[in-house]
Each structure stands twice: as structure tokens, then as C-alpha cells.
Write a structure and sequence with these properties.
Blueprint lengths: L1 E6 L3 H4 L5 H8 L4 E6 L12 E3 L7 E3 L1 H14 L4 E11 L2 H7 L4 E6 L7 H6 L3 E4 L9 H12 L32 E2 L2 E2 L9 H19 L7
Parallel strand pairs: 1-2, 1-6, 5-6, 5-7
Antiparallel strand pairs: 3-4, 8-9
Length: 225
């Protein structure tokens, strides 16, 4: 999979993509992450990428020209499954969406700034708008990093254990059950005996019950309650 991220602050994204799972995915050749500085495509002498909003009001608006030039360039080089805009008023990211996006080959992610992008960018170029929650960040970079991580970790070969992602929270509309590791007892607090029993049928039943119990207590909305 190839992901092209369009931003005015590429340095904000260099750290998240240069360590851990995302780094390994790139080193294995499973994923490509390309950062593009929108300022490089500004046509004015000042290399500015924003301007005052028509009609007045506080805050600046990202201009359409440099974004359009960059997206047109990328789309001329390859076909993209989605051109995504990270925005608080987009569809809220969930596991099902990440699963679907992980099946694609090429994605563009546009990071907004200031008061957002010229609406014509959204009308003419964007095919999917995504939010990571009902709050506002200083820019779309951190949201783009969250989205990218949620997608790439699902691609076969990225995780050392192929089944790990399949047992994550939300994969079956339930939260994950509690997990334990050694020592079996710590300050009088023991690991549940069933997990030490070696009876995998009982262990699976225990985990299913705990997953349902935790979901009812913490996220009843997932169960339609």
C-alpha cells in the first residue's frame, strides 16, 4: 500500500513514521508513506498557502491552487482508491472503516490547517472526509498519523503475529477482554485460574464473557444499548 500525505508541516509526521510498526512496514516494503509539503506547490513568490476568507471573519483559509496542483500531479502518476480529508466534521473513524481502507492500494490524505481548506477542494477533489473525534486539533497531521497507523497495522505481514489485529477491540463490535502475563501472582492479586488451566475451550469462553461484560460496562453503544 502507498499513502501520500499532503501537509504544510511534514516535520510533524517524520517521528511517528520512523519507529515501531510503521517503520518495519516500510522496511519490509509492505507500505510506502510519502510526505508532500504543500508549500512546494505554491505559485506565489511568498510560497504562502493560505489567504483571508471571503466575507470576513477570524482565521485564514488554505488556498485551493497548491493543493489542486499537488493532487493533480499525484493522480496523473497512479490511480487512488480514496482522496481523504482529515476534518472534525467528517465521518468518525472506526475499526470497520480502517478495515475497508486497508484493502486499498493507494490513498491520499490531506491535512487541514487554519480554518480549513477552500470548500472547492472538498467539492472537486475529496472522496472521503474523516474525523478522529469531536474535538479540534491545531492541524490534521496528528489525525493523519492515527488514520495511517490504524490502516497499515492491518495489512498482512505488518504485525509479527498475523492473528493479533483480528483480536483487537472493535473487530467484532466488542472491546477486548482483560489480558495478563507473568508473574501469576502480584501482591496477592492472582491471574484468573482459567487462564492458567490450559483448557482452551474454557479460556475462549472466559474471554468472550469478559469482552461482553467490559463492552456493556464501558461502551454499551456498541451493543445498541
Amino acid at each position: 500500500m502507498r499513502i501520500d500525505i499532503l501537509t504544510i508541516l511534514p516535520e510533524l509526521l517524520q517521528g511517528p513514521f520512523s519507529a515501531s510498526i510503521l517503520k518495519r512496514a516500510q522496511e519490509k516494503g509492505i507500505a510506502e508513506i510519502h510526505l508532500h509539503n504543500i508549500r512546494d506547490y505554491a505559485t506565489n513568490k511568498q510560497k504562502s498557502v493560505d489567504d483571508y476568507a471571503y466575507g470576513g471573519g477570524a482565521g485564514m483559509v488554505m488556498s485551493i491552487e497548491p493543493i489542486a496542483i499537488l493532487i493533480d500531479k499525484l493522480k496523473a502518476e497512479r490511480k487512488y482508491d480514496e482522496v481523504i480529508y482529515m476534518t472534525p466534521d467528517g465521518e468518525v473513524l472506526d475499526q470497520r472503516m480502517a478495515n475497508n481502507l486497508s484493502l486499498g492500494e493507494n490513498l491520499i490524505i490531506l491535512c487541514g490547517h487554519y480554518k480549513g481548506v477552500d470548500e472547492r477542494v472538498r467539492e472537486m477533489y475529496i472522496t472521503k472526509e474523516i474525523s478522529i473525534g469531536s474535538y479540534v486539533l491545531s492541524g490534521g497531521e496528528l489525525a493523519a498519523a492515527v488514520l495511517t497507523d490504524s490502516i497499515i497495522r492491518l495489512i498482512p505481514g505488518v504485525l509479527n503475529d498475523e492473528t493479533s489485529a483480528l483480536t483487537d477491540s472493535f473487530q467484532d463490535d466488542l472491546l477486548s477482554p482483560p489480558v495478563y502475563t507473568r508473574p501469576p501472582e502480584f501482591k496477592g492479586n492472582r491471574v484468573p485460574d482459567v487462564l492458567l488451566s490450559g483448557n482452551f475451550e474454557l479460556i475462549e469462553k472466559f474471554r468472550e464473557e469478559k469482552a461482553l461484560e467490559r463492552t456493556k460496562a464501558r461502551r454499551p453503544d456498541l451493543l445498541g444499548e
